[in-house]
């Protein structure tokens, strides 16, 4: 999980305690990934258990406990950074499941469903464009890059809707039952 | 070349009196002999003054035809096209040419600059045809578009982005009521294309009414708050998008429910 490696990466820069890790992680992600402090503490405990980080100084007040990267942690971080992000593509496509079901249900309003989804994607493009503009204005080039990726993904989603819109539905249901 | 433009540089668009109707197409059909693609089939739509509208659709869908009909470059087989107070169908060829020259600014994918004229001379043509030969406004426009330093160059010695800026200046020289753009970034690299789109956004903020034909939804939604979709000669959707500012976490999530292991 990349929260684990996000924490390792932050600790590589300097020793931090839990709240600092949470704040820096959220700031780094520009508001696109919220973590709660419980997740941070759990992650820190597991990393310590696995020998990837170690507490710095005395174990007094838990909240003030600083952690630093261990040599093993450094190695794990380097290996993770060197690995391409492979594995199956993660799709969170509710629309796909809706389509599957709509093709099986008589009177499934596919054209309407696709048109509504297309509008939602257009609105998302609009929102992403505004966010990118804001990120650049604020000097958040890293966030702008992320938004750029999201724009391209959404463009692909739109094209997918266009392709589906030009298809004829209604005959495949029997074959897939 | 710096793509930034001083805000308020273009005050000719008539920002006042927004949301009054500027274009009305009623049941417009265009049939091409021999079944060439790009035909239109019963399109009705209106464009409000001050709107930035993107027309999207696959190639051959009729979106460029739509633009050409609004520009008076082409005539519908049936139906009416009204721009401002003018029913284009009531104009003869001379009247139509004058209407285009005086009221429509048109930019294209491949710029269409005259190769044997300098940038400045290209911008001046529509003004001279209208009887305003003075180069003052043309120079001002080239200055505002950031290309005054190439005013005396010939198109062959300009980059694509510069050529499109010259074409934009030419489109604006007669203070058109409507700016039409047909794939204006289609022949440009990404950076130049984005600069041209920024310019169009700037012109819109200064009150210009813009109709943009594009297949790039990313670019279209950057400035256009309205998207019309055309497929097989029919208008299949017409949506006005929300433009309010939204928090980053409401727009994009790298991860929302982390299940750390």
In a nutshell, what does this entry contain?
The complex is a heterodimer of chains A (177) and B (261). By secondary structure, chain A is mostly helical.
Radius of gyration of chain A: 22 Å
User: Given the helix and strand composition of chain A, which structural class is it?
Assistant: mainly alpha
Proportion of beta-strand residues of chain A: under 5%
* Order of helix and strand elements from N to C terminus of chain B: EEEHEEHEHHHEHEHEEH
Distance between the termini of chain A: 36 Å
The greatest interface here is: A-B, 43 and 32 residues
The CATH class assignment of chain B is Alpha Beta
**What is the number of domains of chain A?**
2
Q: What is the percent of helical residues of chain A?
A: 55-70%
**How many helices of chain B does DSSP assign?**
8
Task: Give the topology.
The complex is a heterodimer of chains A (177) and B (261).
Chain A: H1 2-13, H2 18-28, H3 37-49, E1 53-56, E2 66-69, H4 71-82, H5 94-104, H6 110-137, H7 141-165, H8 173-176
Antiparallel strand pairs in A: 1-2
Chain B: E1 21-30, E2 40-48, E3 52-56, H1 63-71, E4 78-83, E5 86-87, H2 93-103, E6 104-107, H3 119-130, H4 136-144, H5 160-172, E7 178-182, H6 190-205, E8 210-214, H7 217-223, E9 226-231, E10 234-240, H8 248-251
Parallel strand pairs in B: 3-8, 3-9, 6-7, 7-8
Antiparallel strand pairs in B: 1-2, 1-4, 4-5, 9-10
Helix pairs in contact in B: 3-5, 5-6
Question: Which key phrases capture this entry?
Answer:
heterodimer, A: 177 residues, mainly alpha, Arc Repressor Mutant, subunit A, 2 domains, two-stranded antiparallel ribbon, 2 strands, 5% strand, disordered C terminus, B: 261 residues, alpha/beta, Rossmann fold, 6-stranded mixed sheet, 4-stranded antiparallel sheet, 31% helix
Tell me what the structure shows.
The complex is a heterodimer of chains A (177) and B (261). The longest helix of chain A is centred in the C-terminal third of the chain and has 28 residues, at 110-137. The relative contact order of chain A is 0.09. The radius of gyration of chain A is 22 Å and the shape is elongated. In chain A, strands 1-2 form a two-stranded antiparallel ribbon. Chain A is built from eight helices and two strands. The two termini of chain A are 36 Å apart. Chain A has two domains: 2-82, Winged helix-like DNA-binding domain superfamily/Winged helix DNA-binding domain (Arc Repressor Mutant, subunit A), CATH 1.10.10.10; 94-176. Chain A is mostly helical and 177 residues long. With 261 residues, chain B is an alpha/beta fold. Chain B has a single domain (21-241), classed as Rossmann fold. Chain B has helices at residues 63-71, 93-103, 119-130, 136-144, 160-172, 190-205, 217-223, 248-251; strands at residues 21-30, 40-48, 52-56, 78-83, 86-87, 104-107, 178-182, 210-214, 226-231, 234-240. The longest helix of chain B is centred in the last third of the chain and has 16 residues, at 190-205. Classes of the chains: A mainly alpha (177), B alpha/beta (261). Chain A binds chain B through residues 1-4, 29-35, 39, 42-43, 46, 115, 118-119, 122-131, 133-135, 143, 146-147, 150-152, 154-155, 158, 162, 165-166, and chain B through 58, 217-218, 220-222, 225, 227, 229, 231, 236-237, 239, 241-243, 245-256, 258-261.
